[in-house]
Write a structure and sequence with these properties.
Distance between the termini: 17 Å
Largest sheet: none
Helix content: over 70%
Structural class: mainly alpha
Radius of gyration: 16 Å
Number of strands: 0
Order of helices and strands: HHHH
Length: 126
């Protein structure tokens, strides 16, 4: 352990696993088809991009890159807010409120856990 406590190391592993799971959920959505072809393309690129960011977050967590703990928190806060916003107001390029589904439920749960976990790591690492 590179100067980290067992508790911090466990949080890093948990964060890495959850972030990787989150990326997997979003990579599955890259193949989604929407009625509007433009929206389909935009959403595919978006899901691929955020899945890539989640993989970078997983690597940063397992490597213990402390400078990225706060940006990881911000990433998951933004995703959490976007998920809730598109469930209460019309989604961009789709024009209607999107329904809750298993992907959304899993993402919201992982987002909430990752926000708490990455904040805890950030606080511990200070």
């Amino acid at each position: 352990m590179n100067g980290t406590t067992v508790k911090q190391n466990m949080l890093q592993w948990a964060g890495m696993l959850l972030s990787t799971l989150w990326a997997g959920v979003h990579l599955d959505l890259v193949d989604a088809k929407l009625p509007n072809p433009t929206a389909t393309l935009i959403y595919r690129v978006f899901f691929g991009f955020v899945a890539s960011l989640a993989i970078v977050a997983a690597v940063a967590l397992i490597q213990g890159i402390k400078k990225l703990y706060l940006p990881i928190t911000i990433f998951y806060v933004i995703d959490f807010a976007l998920l809730l916003e598109t469930r209460t107001a019309p989604a961009l390029f789709v024009g209607k409120v999107l329904p809750f589904n298993p992907y959304v439920d899993i993402s919201l749960i992982i987002d909430a856990i990752m926000i708490v976990l990455s904040l805890a790591l950030w606080k511990i690492s200070k």
